[in-house]
Amino acid sequence: MKIKLLVIGKTDDKNLNQLIENYQKRLQHYINFRLEVIPDLKNSKNLSQLQQKEKEGELILSKIQAFDQMILLDEKGKEFRSIEFANYLQKKMNSGIKQLVFVIGGPYGFSEKVYQKAMGKISFSKMTFSHQMIRLFVVEQVYRGFTILRNEPYHHE
Which letter does DSSP use for residue 106 in this model? Predict the structure, then answer.
């Protein structure tokens, strides 16, 4: 199985990018993982929230292949403890899917079409985080999940 993190907009913070890259490198030891950035919409200030969600949704869906299993990072999604998330990853690998795609949407969330195509929703917290920060959290939790599955000393319960 491969894992892709699909995100809207680039991260300008060099420190944050460095941390994300660090965990991406660590993850290569366990699984084929990549982060794909969909560029921010041009002239988004001239669009309503609904129009922006629709346009971003079209871009997201254009990056999803028929065999992908798309999981949205959404405040209304299922919450996991780290060990539960590790078990979730293991079940996904055991199910034989080719690629698991976690998606972080734009500032207004996802379009209805994206919700309809999604195979699930995960929430990392009831709190709101910046779209840049949640990228780091996702990459770190995927890494943590694999260290848990391998009984490595990264995670402490």
Answer: B
Cα dihedral 53, 140, 100, 30 in deg (nearest 10): 160
> Quick one: 107 exposed, middle or buried, by C-beta within 10 A (0-12, 13-18, 19+)?
middle
Closest CA to 67 of 6, 119, 145: 119
Blockwise average pLDDT, block size 10, the chain, 157 residues: 96 94 96 95 85 95 96 95 97 96 94 97 90 94 97 89
Which sign does the torsion angle of CA 123, 70, 133, 112 carry? negative
| pTM beyond cutoff 0.90 | yes
User: Counting Cβ atoms within 10 Å, is residue 60 exposed (0-12), middle (13-18) or buried (19+)?
Assistant: buried
